[in-house]
Amino acid sequence: MGRKEVLAERKRLEEFYYGCRMETPEEVAKQFEVYTRLIWDFHQAGLCYDYYCDTTKTRLEGTGTWIGGHDALEVETLPVLSAYPDRKTNFQEIYCVGDPEQGYHFGQVTSPSGRYAKESASMQGMGDDSFFEEGSAYTLCECYVKKVDGRWCIVDEFVVSGEEVKRSRMRRSRPFCKTILDLYQEPGQKDGSEKEEAAE
Prior knowledge:
With 200 residues, the protein is an alpha+beta fold. It has a single domain (3-74, 91-112, 140-185), classed as Nuclear Transport Factor 2, Chain: A (Roll). 38% of the residues lie in helices and 34% in strands. It is built from seven helices and nine strands; from the N terminus they run H-H-H-E-E-H-E-E-E-E-E-E-E-H-H-H. The strands form two sheets. Strands 1, 2, 3, 4, 7, 8 and 9 form a seven-stranded mixed beta sheet that branches. Helix 1 (3-19) packs antiparallel against helix 2. It is globular. 22% of the residues are buried.
């Protein structure tokens, strides 16, 4: 894809992104697909601040839980863009449920492809200029989106990679988030099963 084609594609995505009204689940699903691609494929990392806020709770597999939108940029996004400069986001599926009054819950499965830049630094070590193909890894991201102080924000985010994503896809479970909540349950938090057992 040449420079003109890249710019045309970015313009097309931006037109949808800035015109989205978040009125239907289908529109929200498309918005966050576009949002993800603009951040990762077109390196518009600053867009993180459009939907992350000071009270966003992110649970990232292997990293832990943090609260606050700035960490979505500084902890997760910028280091990955540095290590994988030509990374491409390949969407396997995306879905969304909800409405403008109650908010939305969406989930997406992606499989990145690209190159691990030589001598770049990441949690995996130093880059070796190796390539990774679509289908070699999967990431599942689920988010709850609601209005905070009058603007749409991601209030809860769960990110899981690896075999758990494959198992969830094979079960065709909707929402995936039940599995993720089990994985990331806060210490001492009750999931309601105790009440069900007592009732029996």
